[in-house]
Amino acid sequence: MSLRGGLRFLAKQIFGGVRMLQTGETAPDFEAVDHNGNRVKLSELRGKKVVLWFYPKADTPG
Amino acid sequence: MIGVSFDTVEENRKFAKKFDFPFPLLCDTDRKIGIAYGAADSSKDEYARRIAYVIDENGKIAQAHAKVDAASYPREQLATL
Predict the structure, then answer these.
(1) Which domain holds residue B46?
(2) Could you give the number of structural domains in chain B?
(3) Residue A53 and residue B49: Cα distance in Å, rounded?
C-alpha cells in the first residue's frame, strides 16, 4: 500500500465511520441539559417510546 | 419526544418559547449525542443532520429516519405518541 493509500485508508477509518444507527440496535444512552436547564437521561425514560429529533439550528425555518 | 441540537440553553429556550414545543430541547454542545447517533461527524460540526429515531420502550431503535422535514416532523410524531 502506498503512503497516500495508507493515509486515505486511515482517514476513512477515522472520519468515515459515521453512520446512522439501525433498527434493532440499542440506542446509546446519553445525558444532557435541556432548554430549561433540566438534565435529561435516556435510560431514565425506559418504558416509554421516545422520538429523538435532531435539528440543525434553533429557530431556523425548514 | 426529545429535540436535539448543538445550540446553547439560551438559544434553545428562545426556540422552545417561540414555537411552544411541549417537549425538551437538548443542548448537545459537545456533539456527543450527535456523534453517537450519526447526526454529526465530529465535535467541530456546526449543525446536526436532519435525522430522527424512534426508540422503543426497551431502549432499542424502532425506526431510523434519514431525512426529516423540520417544520412538520415534531407535529407528526407527537400525534403518534
Answers:
(1) 3-78
(2) 1
(3) 10
